[in-house]
C-alpha cells in the first residue's frame, strides 16, 4: 500500500502527541513493508529529523505563517501527491493544510481516514476561527471520511458531536518504541539538574494551559510539607506559561525544589523517566497521553487526570487517576507517594502492560487492517 499521512507539523519540540504518533506510525509502515509519505510544513523540521524516519518520503511545504501554519503550496503538486497514494490519512483537525488537501481528495475521490488525535472540541484560543473552520469545511471533512480513528474511547463522544455514529469509530491507541527509551543513566541526570539522591516528581509536556503544569505546581506547593524532600521537574518547551510558572515559584519560595529543565530528547529524555520516582500528567484535556506510555516502558508509575484517556492504569495498578484540579492532584500525590514499595510495584505493572499492549510492532497491525478494509 501507498499511504499519505497529512499533518501540519513534524516539529518534535512543539508538535505534541499527534506529531510523535505520525512520526512513529510512518516509520512503522515502512518497517512493515509499505510505502509511506508525509505531507507537512517545514516549521521546526530538521535534516536530522527527516533522516531518522528511515525511508519515509517527507514532503515539507514552506510555512508562511508560524501561528496558523499557512503553507506555500502548488495545488497541482498536491493533487499529484494524492494521486500517487492509495489512501490519505489526516492527523489533527484545526489545520489549513488538512483543508487544502481535503479539497483535492474530494476532487479525486480518493479514500481517506481522519485521526483528530483529541482535537475535535473547540478549546483554547481562536474559538471564532475554529467555529468558522468547522462551518466551512471541518465538519464535512470529519463526517465524510471513509474511516474515523479515535486514540481512546474518550473521543467517541467527540465524533458523535460531528455526526459520526460510535459504530464507525475505530480505536487505535498511541504506541511506543521501547528502543528509544532504553538509556538509564540515572546518576548523570540527577547530578545534572542538581538533586542528588532526593526523590523526584516529573512532568513532561509543553508548558501550556491545556497540559495543566500550573495545577501540578499549585498542588505541590499546597502539600510541600507532606512531600518532605521531593523535588519537582518540568521537562518540555515553553508554550506560553513558563514566565507565569517561574513567577509562581518565586512567590511560593520553592526555587530550591522546582526545576525547569526545558525540552529533552533521546537519551536525556529516557534518563529523566528512569530517574523519576513518579510521573504526573495534570492535563485538563487530552486524547491519550503518549508520555504515560513513555513512563510505562521505563517502569515509572504515573499519576494522571481522568482527561488523559488512560483510566485503565488503576485497573492494572500501574498508577492513579484523579480529577483535573489542584485538590484532585494534591490528594492523589499524598496517596500514591505514601507507600514506596507499592510505588515500585506500580511501575513494574505499568511496564508489563505497556510492553504487552502498546508497542508499535503490535499497533501497526490495527492500522493495516483498517486500511485494507477501506481499500477493499
Give your account of this protein's structure.
By secondary structure, this protein is of the alpha/beta class. It has 15 helices and 15 strands. The protein has helices spanning 17-31, 47-51, 75-83, 96-108, 127-143, 154-160, 186-193, 213-222, 242-252, 266-275, 291-297, 312-315, 326-336, 340-357, 360-375, and strands spanning 2-6, 35-41, 57-61, 63-65, 70-71, 87-91, 112-115, 147-150, 169-171, 200-204, 231-235, 258-262, 278-281, 302-305, 319-322. The protein has a seven-stranded parallel beta sheet with strand order 3-2-1-6-7-8-9, with helices on both faces. It has a six-stranded parallel beta sheet with strand order 12-11-10-13-14-15, with helices on both faces. It has a two-stranded antiparallel sheet with strand order 4-5. Helix 1 packs across helix 15, helix 8 (213-222) runs parallel beside helix 9 and helix 8 (213-222) packs across helix 13. The chain starts with a strand and ends with a helix. The model has no long low-confidence stretch (mean pLDDT 94).
**DSSP strand count:** 15
Q: What general outline do the C-alpha atoms trace?
A: globular
CATH superfamily of the largest domain: Glycogen Phosphorylase B
- Helical residues, percent: 40-55%
Output the strand order for the largest sheet: 3-2-1-6-7-8-9
Estimated structural class: alpha/beta
How many structural domains?
A: 2
CATH architecture of the largest domain: 3-Layer(aba) Sandwich
Straight-line N-to-C gap: 12 Å
Radius of gyration: 21 Å
Amino acid at each position: 500500500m501507498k499511504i499519505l499521512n497529512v499533518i501540519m507539523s513534524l516539529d518534535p519540540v512543539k508538535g505534541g502527541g499527534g506529531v510523535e504518533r505520525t512520526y512513529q506510525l510512518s516509520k512503522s509502515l515502512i518497517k512493515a513493508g509499505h510505502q509511506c509519505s508525509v505531507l507537512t510544513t517545514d516549521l521546526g523540521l530538521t535534516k536530522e529529523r527527516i533522516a531518522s524516519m528511515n525511508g519515509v518520503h517527507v514532503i515539507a511545504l514552506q510555512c508562511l505563517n508560524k501561528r496558523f501554519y499557512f503553507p506555500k503550496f502548488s495545488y497541482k503538486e498536491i493533487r499529484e501527491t494524492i494521486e500517487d497514494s492509495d489512501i490519505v490519512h489526516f492527523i489533527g483537525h484545526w489545520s489549513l493544510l488538512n483543508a487544502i488537501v481535503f479539497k483535492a481528495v474530494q476532487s479525486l475521490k480518493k479514500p481517506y481516514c481522519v485521526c483528530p488525535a483529541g482535537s475535535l472540541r473547540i478549546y483554547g484560543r481562536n474559538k471564532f476561527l475554529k467555529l468558522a473552520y468547522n462551518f466551512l469545511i471541518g465538519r464535512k471533512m470529519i463526517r465524510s471520511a471513509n474511516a474515523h480513528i479515535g486514540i481512546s474511547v474518550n473521543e467517541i463522544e467527540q465524533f458523535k458531536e460531528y455526526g459520526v455514529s460510535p459504530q464507525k469509530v475505530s480505536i487505535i491507541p498511541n504506541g511506543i518504541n521501547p528502543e528509544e527509551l532504553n538509556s538509564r543513566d540515572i546518576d548523570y541526570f540527577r547530578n545534572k539538574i542538581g538533586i542528588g539522591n532526593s526523590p523526584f516528581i516529573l512532568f513532561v509536556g509543553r508548558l501550556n494551559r491545556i497540559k495543566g503544569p500550573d495545577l501540578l505546581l499549585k498542588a505541590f506547593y499546597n502539600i510541600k510539607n507532606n512531600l518532605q524532600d521531593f523535588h519537582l521537574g518540568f521537562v518540555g518547551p515553553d508554550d506560553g506559561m513558563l514566565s507565569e510558572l517561574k513567577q509562581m515559584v518565586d512567590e511560593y519560595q520553592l526555587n530550591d525544589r522546582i526545576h525547569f529543565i526545558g525540552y529533552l530528547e533521546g537519551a536525556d529524555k529516557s534518563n529523566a523517566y528512569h530517574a523519576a520516582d513518579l510521573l504526573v500528567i495534570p492535563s485538563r484535556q487530552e486524547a491519550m497521553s503518549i508520555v504515560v506510555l513513555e513512563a510505562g516502558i521505563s517502569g515509572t508509575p504515573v499519576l494522571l487526570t481522568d482527561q488523559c484517556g488512560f483510566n485503565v492504569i488503576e485497573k492494572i495498578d500501574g498508577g492513579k487517576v484523579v480529577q483535573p484540579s489542584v485538590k484532585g492532584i494534591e490528594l492523589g500525590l499524598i496517596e500514591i507517594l505514601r507507600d514506596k514499595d507499592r510505588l515500585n510495584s506500580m511501575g513494574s505493572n505499568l511496564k508489563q502492560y505497556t510492553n504487552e499492549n502498546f508497542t508499535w510492532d503490535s499497533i501497526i497491525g490495527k492500522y493495516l487492517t483498517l486500511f485494507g478494509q477501506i481499500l477493499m
